[in-house]
Amino acid sequence: MDTDLSQSPDIWSGKPLVSLMDHIVTTHHTFCRQEVARVGSLFKEVIASHGKDHPELKQGAAKWVKKLRQDYDRRLGKVGGR
Length: 82
Known about the structure:
By secondary structure, the protein is mainly α. It has one domain. It is built from two helices and no strands. Helix 1 (about 15-50) runs antiparallel to helix 2. It starts with 16 loop residues before the first helix and ends in a 5-residue tail after the last helix. The model has no long low-confidence stretch (mean pLDDT about 80).
């Protein structure tokens, strides 16, 4: 997409809705997917560092990250996530 988003907020005025939808999916949904994956990696680091003293982290964090990813995938799948 060749749209310069540093322009005014009216940048999408007069453009096809599909262009805005494509921008949201390719920019924001991609970012969110990357961040969900990063959260999972960060939790692995936390567990590696603190899991011995806090065994509850492993099970609790794993469930939370799995639920976060499933919820995210389910929600974005409904709006054409990639």
